[in-house]
What we know:
Blueprint: E1 28-41, E2 47-60, E3 69-70, E4 76-77, E5 82-85, H1 105-111, E6 116-120, E7 137-138, H2 142-150, H3 176-183, E8 188-189, H4 192-210, E9 214-219, H5 221-232, E10 237-243, H6 279-282, E11 284-291, E12 306-313
Parallel strand pairs: 5-6, 5-9, 9-10
Antiparallel strand pairs: 1-2, 2-6, 3-4, 7-8, 11-12
Amino acid sequence: MIFLQILAFLAVTAAPQNNNSIPHETPAIRSYFYVGGNYISDNNGGHIFANQMYVEKLSPINNPGTIYYKNINNDTTTPVPVILIHGQAQTGTNFLNKPDGNRGWASQFLEAGHTVYILDQTARGRSAVTPGTTTQLSTYSAEYIESRFTAPQRSNLWPQAKLYTQWPGAGIMGDAIFDAFYASNVPFIANATAQQTAVQAAGAALLDRIGRPVWLVGHSQGGLMAPLIADARPQAVKGLVLLEPTGPPFRDAVFGDKAARKWGVADVPVAYEPRVVNPGVELVREEVVLEEEGAKGGNGNGNKTFMISVLWRF
């Protein structure tokens, strides 16, 4: 049974609210480059570039690329490169220092000897939005972020929301940590198919450039992008780490009930085995309805409390 929710990365984003509070980050050699993209007509006799993706590379400062460890078989090995993929309305700053002033994940991976690649998804952050090539940009309001990610216990939009305690600070407008996080939110393209197609192509180009197997670490929307990139270059992926990935399969849940992700884990084609051509027919779905524990058929107001998980098999 699979029940996936889109939740916020617990204070893993943005610049800190107090620059003096930043702990020492792990020293690294920094460079950047762009992958993917193509020239298109600007409809005015010239050409422009579209669908390119910004990548920031952080390498361990002590003999980068030559740090050796012993694996479980006692064989000498170099740490596998790590690619960090952010969620919707976010950028690669998610994985640098946190809005509460603490160190981010990039430093921790660098300390372990990993080369880290932090990307800005296509048409996001430092990956340019090309005029005339994308749908209208969307954004999240501060109230949306509060109710779903940083202070859900105040809104109680789902049964477990009242148990939420992990966000540092109050998680609402005016709180220094919340304001630092919300300031890092950026507009995004709401067309899921267009975004997934562009990120998959650019991600495949990134793996081609790296030239060795990598770990793909994706959060929220990034947890959907990681399998798509792996699907395009399966031999170039050591493994996937999916943190609160977009889901569940086939339709939205919790905040709606509309059809979504017709390929199960994505809105774009996925290479299943055996091969699937028509996902609406060939992917078999099974729904399981569970009553909330202790509900005994209802919530006391005559309304049954339940959650729906969508299963699929091939």
